[in-house]
């Protein structure tokens, strides 16, 4: 972790009577297990979507595999479902953690009537859920970032204590939207976290072709906001750094440009073939960086997760995904009149 | 009731809405202590303070985007774009975002915001301080486009726009800011977004116009009236959604249509009116549908004679009325 972030609270309160450790790296075991399950479930759902695409059952999928640790670390540091969240298309794990269900996602993937994001109007992974303050994903990249500044400005003007969290990829930080948003964030010390999920590629274009700096967070100083870079393959480190940034924002002490270094384990989307720009060797390295088995190992070594528990988690996630898949596939499509509107709010 | 200019009516609408609803705030370039470059927000900073009247960075994209975010989070922003010519950096945020969010979320999110922008030529503004942008934006479903032609409507329509739950692009004829005067009642009233207004009854031909051109059309109609030509004048007021009934009803009566707009002619707003009349009013048609508009050049040129050449005005409009009446 770079920047001025401190290591946060490290109270290791253990009850002597219990054999299993109750904390790890200063975090309670229950929280860590919840985080692990959230990562695991997102992965299983993501994998199922790929399968459905390969079977020709859905037109498109874009994946968050490799980003889960970062997303879950940040999501769990939020007041989930209350704090404002303006996601981007890779945020499957994070929207699930903030309140969309697996079934909600599947209804969207199949373009079904009861898709709560848009009623089947938008492409898959264009998430939204009003009741949980999950705002609407758009396709033009980075448009959500200045909107998040507006959400945060409104929160400040209203005297509320919710923060706004928004995410985008590192390539998308080249859009003017990003720079204008950070200008507002700095000038008004907004309660805003701009999360950059840096996976090193914008589709096929590598980071060196995208910007002449090593860390996206280096851009923060130019706007008068905090800049932080975190290992996004480590959910615990991400959680702690995110918690600190969110606490600062909530206390009215300003915005953070929060860069998480992650890997994109898949091609850009179901329409991409990454063998044209990533070598076989790169892919082997990538696989070794997968945050999910790493976190599992970490929890097991600490004695927080057992084999049996992991098997149960796996079965539970699969059951949830199966149910979501089958229910969504059988669910009705929207009536064609739904295409016609309403276009205007009453 | 007292006589006010167009810009005074606009200011009064904002003042009253700021007082009436704490969710309303204004942002844009120089809107604060300066009161806007055209003085639309004059005095409002002193009255409402820096949390209601917020000078923005010089960045149009985010003036609109911040407005969208604030609107989705429960406020009612009025975003001022200093000149309509400079709205284009925000095109993506207006067209892909503000206009589409209600539809794309199945109605769960709304974007109640107003984007105000002075438009139009005739003030020596050259290519980039004279543009008319209404056709481009009227093409966009989900966005409402309003252009008042007089102070009474300006106040009432702006109040409606601020209270509307959709994004509204509110275009103000800058040439008319101080030139166009009219009676404006004190206190609260609204003019609904949607209905067009027949501002002059006539029998020989119908003229369709809005904003500054409507003002000139009134003068021209007066002029040709003395020659016995009876002009019916329809002030469209809301360009999207359009009041097709009023458009067609007047055509039914006169059978002749002249559409006047200062935007360049090709694919301008008048083209849609002409198409509607041809599609749905063919049985009433007594003459070719006529358009008087700006020429198809990349902007209003600066030099005085060039500007005059570009701009439709009372004389050119009166000539077009005579020609159509004689058909
Ligand atoms: C304005 C805009 N231009 C181009 C695209 C097509 N596009 C979609 S994602 C993408 C790459 C984004 O890369 P990055 O921001 O690094 O995010 P990542 O996909 O790697 O998570 C591109 C070029 C788009 N959606 N929007
Ligand atoms: Mg990337």
Describe the structure.
- The complex is a heterodimer of chains A (346) and B (327).
- Chain A is built from twelve helices and nine strands.
- With 346 residues, chain A is of the alpha/beta class.
- Chain A has a domain at 64-295: Thiamin diphosphate (ThDP)-binding fold, Pyr/PP domains (Rossmann fold), CATH 3.40.50.970.
- In chain A, strands 3-4-5-9-8 form a five-stranded parallel beta sheet, with helices on both faces.
- In chain A, helix 6 (176-187) links the parallel strand 4 (164-169) and strand 5.
- Residues 1-17 of chain A have low confidence and may be disordered.
- A seven-stranded mixed beta sheet of chain B has the order 3-2-4-5-7-6-12, sandwiched between helices.
- Chain B has helices at 6-20, 44-48, 60-72, 91-98, 101-104, 134-138, 151-163, 211-225, 244-254, 269-280, 304-310, 314-326; strands spanning 2-5, 24-28, 53-55, 76-80, 114-119, 144-146, 168-173, 181-184, 197-200, 205-209, 231-235, 238-240, 257-264, 290-294.
- Chain B has two domains: 2-184, Thiamin diphosphate (ThDP)-binding fold, Pyr/PP domains (Rossmann fold); 197-325, Rossmann fold, CATH 3.40.50.920.
- The model of chain B has no long low-confidence stretch (mean pLDDT 98).
- In chain B, 37% of the residues lie in helices and 20% in strands.
- In chain B, helix 3 (60-72) runs parallel beside helix 4 (91-98).
- Chain B is globular and about 60 Å long.
- With 327 residues, chain B is an alpha/beta fold.
- Chain A binds chain B through residues 84, 86, 115-119, 121-122, 126, 128-130, 135-136, 138-140, 143, 145-155, 157-158, 164, 176-177, 180-181, 183-184, 187, 341-346, and chain B through 25, 51, 56-57, 59, 61-62, 65-75, 77, 89, 92-93, 96-97, 100-110, 112, 141-142, 144, 165-166, 241.
- Magnesium ion is lined by residues 169-171, 199, 201-202 of chain A.
């Amino acid at each position: 972790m770079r920047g001025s972030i401190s290591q946060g609270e490290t109270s290791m309160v253990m009850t002597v009577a219990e054999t299993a450790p109750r904390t790890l790296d200063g975090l309670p075991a229950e929280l860590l297990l919840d985080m692990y399950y959230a990562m695991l479930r997102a992965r299983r759902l993501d994998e199922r979507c790929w399968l459905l695409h390969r079977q020709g059952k859905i037109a498109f999928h874009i994946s968050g595999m490799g980003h889960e640790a970062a997303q879950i670390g940040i999501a769990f540091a939020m007041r989930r479902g209350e704090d404002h969240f303006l996601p981007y298309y890779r945020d499957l794990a994070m929207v699930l953690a903030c309140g969309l269900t697996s079934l909600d996602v599947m209804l969207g993937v199949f373009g079904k009537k009861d898709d709560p994001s848009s009623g089947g109007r938008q492409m898959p992974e264009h998430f939204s859920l009003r009741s949980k303050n999950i705002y609407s994903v758009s396709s033009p990249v980075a448009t959500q970032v200045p909107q998040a500044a507006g959400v945060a400005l409104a929160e400040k003007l209203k005297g509320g204590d919710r923060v706004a969290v928004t995410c985008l990829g590192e390539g998308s930080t080249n859009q003017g939207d990003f720079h204008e948003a950070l200008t507002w964030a700095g000038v008004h010390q907004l309660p805003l976290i701009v999360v950059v999920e840096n996976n090193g590629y914008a589709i096929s274009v590598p980071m060196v072709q995208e910007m002449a700096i090593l860390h996206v967070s280096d851009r923060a100083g130019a706007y008068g906001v905090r800049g932080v870079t975190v290992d996004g393959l480590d959910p615990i480190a991400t959680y702690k750094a995110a918690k600190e940034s969110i606490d600062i924002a909530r206390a009215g002490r300003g915005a953070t440009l929060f860069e998480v270094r992650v890997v994109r384990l898949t091609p850009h989307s179901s329409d991409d073939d990454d063998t044209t720009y990533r070598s076989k060797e790169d892919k082997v390295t990538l696989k070794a960086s997968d945050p999910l088995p790493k976190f599992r190992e970490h929890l097991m070594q600490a004695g927080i997760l057992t084999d049996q528990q992991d098997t149960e988690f796996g079965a539970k996630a699969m059951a949830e995904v199966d149910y979501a898949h089958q229910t969504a596939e059988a669910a009705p499509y929207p009536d064609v009149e739904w295409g016609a509107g309403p276009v205007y709010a009453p | 009731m007292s006589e006010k200019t167009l810009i005074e009516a606009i200011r009064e609408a904002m003042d009253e809405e700021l007082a009436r609803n704490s969710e309303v705030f204004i942002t844009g370039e120089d809107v604060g202590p300066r009161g806007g470059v055209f003085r639309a927000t004059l005095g409002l900073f002193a009255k409402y303070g820096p949390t209601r009247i917020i000078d923005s960075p010089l960045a149009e994209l985010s003036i609109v985007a911040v407005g969208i975010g604030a609107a989705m989070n429960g406020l009612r922003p009025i975003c001022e774009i200093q000149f309509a010519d400079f709205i284009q950096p925000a095109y993506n945020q207006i067209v892909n975002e503000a206009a589409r969010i209600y539809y794309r979320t199945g109605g769960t999110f709304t974007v109640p915001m107003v984007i105000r922008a002075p438009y139009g030529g005739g003030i020596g503004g050259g290519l980039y301080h004279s543009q008319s942008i209404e056709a481009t934006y009227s093409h966009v479903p989900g966005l409402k486009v309003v252009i008042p032609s007089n102070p009474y409507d300006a106040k009432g329509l702006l109040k409606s726009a601020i209270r509307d739950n959709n994004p509204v692009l509110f275009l103000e004829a800058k040439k008319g800011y101080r030139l166009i005067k009219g009676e404006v009642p004190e206190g609260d009233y609204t003019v609904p977004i949607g209905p067009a207004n027949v501002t002059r009854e006539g029998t020989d031909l119908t003229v369709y116009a809005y904003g500054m051109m409507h003002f000139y059309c009134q003068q021209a109609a007066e002029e040709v009236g003395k020659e016995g030509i009876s002009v019916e004048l329809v002030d469209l007021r809301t360009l999207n959604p359009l009041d097709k009934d009023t458009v067609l009803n007047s055509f039914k009566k006169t059978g002749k249509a002249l559409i006047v707009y200062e935007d360049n002619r090709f694919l301008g707003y008048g083209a849609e009116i002409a198409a509607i009349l041809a599609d749905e009013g063919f049985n009433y048609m007594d003459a070719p549908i006529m358009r008087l508009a700006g020429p198809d050049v990349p902007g209003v040129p600066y030099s005085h004679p060039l500007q005059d050449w570009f701009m439709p005005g009372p004389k050119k409009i009166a000539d077009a009325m005579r020609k159509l009446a004689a058909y």
